[in-house]
Amino acid sequence: MTALRLSIAALACLASACSNAPDAPRPNVLFVSLDSVRHDDLTPYGGAGMYTGATTTPALAALAEQGVVFEQALSTTSWTLPSHMTMLTGMPDPVHGVTDNKRGLDSGVVTLAEALGEAGYATGGFYSGPNLHPIYGFSQGFDVYANKSSNHPDLAVFSDPRPGAMMPVHRASHEDVTSPDLVAAADAFITEQVAAGEPFFAFVHMWDPHYDYVAPAEHEERFVREGFARSPGGVTGTWEVDKHKRDWDATSAGDLVALYHAELSYTDAYLAKLFARLDELGIADDTLVVVVADHGEEFFEHGRWGHQRTLFDEVVRIPMILRHPAQLPGGLRVPAQVGLQDLYATICDITDVRLPAYAGPDTLFGESLRPYWEDPSLPGRDQLLHLDVPFRALELFGLRRATPDGVHKVVLDPRQVQAEVYDLQADPREANPRVVPRYTASEDPLVRAAVRLAAEAKAARAALPLVDGDVEVVLTPAERAELERLGYL
Q1: Would you say 306 and 315 are in contact if contact means Cβ atoms under 8 Å apart?
Q2: Would strands 103-104 and 471-472 be described as parallel, antiparallel, or unpaired?
Q3: pTM
């Protein structure tokens, strides 16, 4: 199956125009994005506290038992801005074009919120991190799009010349706790739409799993080793402190992961509140629930903590769980490789909503995942990976291929004209790549497939009905301050 092509089900939806009959009942949609969450640390994927064996995410485990778990779901990249734009446009990063903080979405692109809104859905988006700011185009199509972060520093500090003046701002931003206000806002929106008898699309971006790891004590106590205490020179779970630590060893790295697990547990507790609210309102069976992450996180598998620097599996493999009792089986696990860009077409398929007219092979639009829960034996598809970070002089293209014969990955570095090829069965830690210099001249079939897919992605943008062209984002001082304190600029 060719990379990122529309499935037969999605093409059939286009051909029939997905009736959009006003009297056809449609499920509500609750779409939850977990920021910086690895699949392998969540309970449905075998994750548990490394020191205590404690369950990390019981609410997600319950959701998985009632729905479909995709075991090899992939992001398109390893950071927040472009991956979320993929969620809401159905296109890989080079196609939607929002690949760094200076680029915004072209208004000719139809967002998922616009597609659902046109079909009669009330649309509400609730975000809690700066890379989902409306300036990038994320608010396009939402009736309500609200920032639920709480950190609003005095902007005078950003021009303060004193050494270390910015440190309190960095720390305050990373330590922001957003889940209570975020879930309360989503709850209020959902409750209002249920009272009005309107189908809703609620998009909820959960920031708390992103560092810093400062979960309440009752969550930390379930995961940290006996005798652990934050101390000078030790592990604190705070980015501004721990990023300067140079003597990481297995124990201190484990301490950091334990604090991360506490944040996952804390976030899961608020997911439980949101899921319970669906039950209280009597709409759980009438609501499609989608839970996914934007990317994962590195914990020293390749020498660093964080993301936005590589395309290794620890940052591109993500959890993806869907539940809708009327149309999806319960307790099913799908082994095929699927991608983040497939969620748009899948949601439109389940809700019987028309896809954009341009959705097709020429734009590398994602595919409905329906064939995979109807026949879990189907093979997966090639996945395009991309990382564009101009301020780090970094751009990478990747292809990940998973078949019954094995899992392979190619990462192209156009600046070095060099490729790295990984056999993930023989080398699951991606420690021993086969280096291919001057990859444009290579006869290796996998390398050639990666080169071809990267070229198709660059060309696909020309097939879109663009209105604004390449949209340059002009950040206000406050917006720039938010991103600088988080290390994205």
Answers
A1: no
A2: antiparallel
A3: 0.90
- Cβ-based neighbours of 332, under 8 Å, separated by 6 or more: 67, 68, 69, 373, 376
Task: Provide the token pair at 46.
Answer: 């075998």
DSSP labels, 166-217: THHHHHHHHT---HHHHHHHHHHHHHHHHHHT--EEEEEEE-TTSSP----H
Q: Tens place of pLDDT for every residue, the chain, 489 residues?
A: 333 333 433 433 443 334 344 455 799 999 999 999 999 999 999 999 999 999 999 999 999 999 999 999 999 999 999 999 999 999 999 999 999 888 899 999 999 999 999 999 999 999 988 888 888 999 999 999 998 987 554 445 434 566 554 445 445 556 778 999 999 999 999 999 999 999 999 999 999 999 999 999 999 999 999 999 988 888 999 888 888 888 999 999 999 999 999 999 999 999 999 999 999 999 999 999 999 999 999 999 999 999 999 999 999 999 999 999 999 999 999 999 999 999 999 999 999 999 999 998 889 999 999 999 999 999 999 999 999 998 788 999 999 999 988 999 999 999 999 999 999 999 999 999 999 999 999 999 999 999 999 999 989 998 888 888 777 776 666 556 656 655 556
Domain ranges of the chain: 8-381
| Length of the chain (residues) | 489
Name the CATH code of domain 8-381 (choices 1.10.10.10, 3.30.70.20, 3.40.720.10, 3.40.50.720). 3.40.720.10
The rounded distance, in Å, linking the Cα atoms of 185 and 470 is 33
